Amino acid sequence: MQLSPHFSLAELTRTSRDIPNEPDDAALTRLRLLCSEVLEPLRLLWGVPIRINSGFRSAAVNAAIGGAKGSQHLRGEAADVVPVGMSAEKAMEMLAKAVARGELPKLGQGIIYASGFLHVSIDIATKPRQQLLRSSAAGGSGGPYHAYRVAS
Ligand SMILES: [Zn+2]
Q1: Can you give the residue ranges of every domain in the chain?
Q2: Distance from residue 123's CA to the centre of ligand 1 (Å)
Q3: Tens of pLDDT along 48-59?
Q4: DSSP 93-131
Q5: What is the CA(101)–ligand 1 centre distance, in A?
Q6: Which listed residue, of 23, 38, 76, 117, carries a Cα 20 to 30 Å from 32's Cα?
Q7: How far, in Å, is the centroid of ligand 1 from the Cα of 2?
Q8: Cβ atoms 80, 118 nearer than 8 A
């Protein structure tokens, strides 16, 4: 099932764990909004395909991979993405400039991780935070987080 022109439900629910990962109707609705309001605009901005490392996570999947409690992934509001053929640094810089231009009005957070992926989320029920962060985690995820500034 397609959620938007370039993103399928299979991509947004993929998990390396052998654990059920089925969104309920509410999470499915939020996944569609994540695709249409955040991922499709980013695909257009970056001009390259986007690989989804992790989108929706059931509580069991989130626990198994050590995801944050209360993570937006649990609600279908976040995805960890890698733009194919573009560095995460370049992608984050373009994302930050697009946010500054007001082009991603629903963006909750954009976070760049040292291991080379971006976490992006949508804020639906609240005023979108438009928050840009850099994680200096030694591992693949988690903090500490710092306000994002373009690397010079
Ligand atoms: Zn994430």
Answers
A1: 2-147
A2: 14
A3: 999 999 999 999
A4: HHHHHHHHTT--TTEEEEEEETTTEEEEEE--SS----E
A5: 24
A6: 117
A7: 21
A8: yes
**Which residues are bridge partners to 120 per DSSP?**
79, 110
Query: CA dihedral in degrees (87, 90, 91, 95; nearest 10)?
Result: 170
Give the Cα separation of 136 and 77 in Å (integer): 23
The arithmetic mean of pLDDT across residues 89-116, rounded, is 97
Which tens digit of pLDDT belongs to each residue from 18-61? Answer: 999 999 999 999 999 999 999 999 999 999 999 999 999 999 99
Which 3 state secondary structure label does DSSP give 33?
helix
Q: How far is CA 4 from the centre of its chain?
A: 15
User: In angstroms, what is the span from residue 16 Cα to ligand 1's centroid?
Assistant: 15
Distance 152 CA to ligand 1 centre (A): 25
CA of 3 to the centre of ligand 1 (A): 19
pLDDT at 19: 94
List CB-based neighbours of ion ligand 1 within 5 Å.
78, 80, 119
